[in-house]
Specification:
Length: about 550
């Protein structure tokens, strides 16, 4: 019995080693063709994991969980597919897909990530490492482009999300919900269940975790067990197992099922509570769920951001050497590396120090302290001071670009979002002096708020005015005059919401100024003068405030 167990373990370890060799050869082939990917290709360690998942590979950003039987089967099917699988997963990390937590519809976002990664992979290497499904993928990508225009993550996500929400039998802009099944089959290549952004409730990827079969599990003839480096030849040589025995597909499946401590168990019975309990147990025991737990997820995210930026800089400088195939890659990298800010934290930076009537537990009257020590020995009398120095925002200017190129609905949502932050934050005094200025090429309206309690009434009266050209100078001249005459004596700064397509002041003002842009993936964010701050926020942060 012990000898049989030892033999089983030996064969299992050989299969693990073979899977690792195949993945290493995928890395080598990609490195030979794309030297700029060197930092990304070898960054993650390999972890053999027989999870029973739908696809051979999964990553948590720190390591790669690979299912040895499926890796071998995928290799025997077509080595190019193995290479494309690994490139697809690496692109997810470079685009920081595993760390995105800004999309509520995980099914739609997961498929969007696959569409973006696979479209870039096709541009990079469809001629070097072609796939049998590339022609059909191009046809579906043409359909998506026809629906959304430029292939950008936000646009693709909106399309997929609307299709997910579309009832069965209904169509969204001529597409039925059933087309999603085709897109999943064409663009998915790896498991997303281990992504750090994956919520605890699970995702569509979980369906693959309980499905122990796939087209890759079909019994290949005499699977290989050895792999030698092959230089420029993309097809590595293989030899049989050391003991001359072949592992059939059934043996591999049985071995994986018997030896994997995290294998999913089927729950018998039709009772609803039993089924729910079985699902919860499967989620808890799922090996990929455990693999997802990375103690250094935040550091991994920063590391991937550094690698992504380094690759972007290298391609931007020497992109011509790699041909037109890298243009879409550079574009998506630039979007992924575009810096976004926490608008709430940014507004707090405008706080100024002032004295408030508050109990200050950190300071007290020393006269009472000394009197207590003298009267009672070692017992001081401590009375906290009734005033405290705090950082508060009082004088503040919100300037709104109401030119024709800025949507009025976004302007209203931005103002509401800003005032929501002001009302909820302790850094803002209740008695304020906030000037809201609407301007295009001239000042259209100025309204002053003295108490944050009046914000709701202000929003009811708000009407967007303007829709002409864009010139920022009138607002800066007007605010500068108010600083001079004392109407904004304690002004800390000005926030200007705009698309940036206007005339900036030539000289720096006496106060801090920030230009806030809505993140638009279809164009580059305009430059601002060196004395100003550029802030980019996502439209998703403004949703639900209209």
């Amino acid at each position: 019995m012990q000898k049989a167990m030892d033999e089983k373990l030996r064969r299992r370890l050989e299969e693990d080693s073979l899977g690792k060799d195949i993945i290493d050869e995928c890395r080598a082939q990609l490195m030979l063709k794309f030297r700029f990917l060197d930092l990304a290709l070898w960054r993650m360690e390999l972890v053999p994991l027989r999870s029973g998942a739908r696809y051979p590979l999964a990553t948590n950003g720190s390591g790669i969980a690979y299912d040895p039987p499926r890796v071998v089967a995928r290799y025997r099917q077509d080595f190019n597919e193995s290479i494309r699988d690994y490139l697809h997963m690496t692109l997810h990390c470079l685009f920081k897909h595993p760390y995105d937590r800004d999309h509520d519809d995980f099914e739609a976002w997961s498929l969007t990530c696959d569409v973006m990664a696979e479209s870039v992979a096709m541009d990079l290497c469809s001629r070097r490492f072609p796939s049998a499904d590339d022609t059909e993928r191009r046809g579906q990508l043409d359909t998506i482009r026809m629906m959304v225009g430029d292939l950008l993550p936000s646009k693709v996500y909106e399309l997929v999300h609307n299709l997910v929400e579309c009832p069965d039998g209904r169509a969204y802009r001529g597409l039925r919900r059933e087309v999603l099944a085709d897109w999943h089959a064409l663009f998915e290549r790896d498991e997303h269940a281990a992504w750090p952004s994956m919520n605890s409730q699970g995702s569509p990827s979980d369906e693959g975790l309980s499905n122990g079969t796939s087209q890759d599990d079909e019994d290949p003839d005499d699977p290989p067990s050895g792999l030698e480096a092959s230089g420029d030849d993309p097809q590595p040589s293989v030899e049989g197992l050391d003991d001359g025995r072949d592992l059939s597909g059934d043996e591999r499946e049985q071995e994986g099922a018997d030896s994997s401590a995290g294998s999913l168990e089927e729950t018998a019975g039709t009772d609803g509570e039993q089924e729910a309990s079985g699902a919860e147990q499967a989620q808890a025991d799922d090996p990929l769920t455990n693999f997802k737990q990375s103690a250094q997820a935040e550091q991994d995210e920063r590391d991937w951001e550094d690698v992504s930026k380094q690759i972007e800089m290298e391609l931007s400088a020497f992109g011509n050497e790699w041909g037109d195939g890298t243009s879409s890659f550079i574009g998506i990298l630039a979007l992924a590396n575009r810096k976004r800010y926490d608008y709430s934290e940014f507004l707090r930076s405008f706080a100024v120090q002032s004295e408030e009537i508050l109990v200050n537990p950190e300071e007290f009257d020393y006269a009472f302290y000394s009197y207590g020590m003298e009267l009672y020995g070692k017992t001081p009398l401590i009375e906290p001071l009734e005033y405290k120095e705090t950082d508060r925002v009082r004088d503040f200017v919100i300037a709104i670009d109401t030119s024709e190129s800025v949507k009025g609905e976004l302007v209203r949502r931005f103002i509401e979002h800003t005032f929501d932050i002001l009302k909820e934050s302790s850094e803002f005094a209740s008695r304020v002096n906030i000037h809201v200025i609407q301007a295009d090429n001239r000042i259209q309206q100025e309204m002053v708020i003295k108490d944050l309690k009046d914000v709701d009434a202000f929003m009811e009266r708000l009407q967007i005015r303007g829709f002409g050209g864009t010139d920022f100078r009138p607002v800066f001249d007007h605010v500068g005059a108010m600083v001079e005459d004392g109407r904004l004596a304690d002004l800390k700064g000005l926030v200007y919401f705009t698309d940036g397509l206007g005339t900036f002041p030539e000289s720096a003002p006496r106060f801090d100024a920030a230009f806030v842009f809505l993140n638009d993936e279809s164009r580059d964010v305009p430059s601002v003068p060196p004395w100003a701050t550029k802030l980019i926020i996502d439209e998703t942060s403004l949703k639900g405030r209209a």
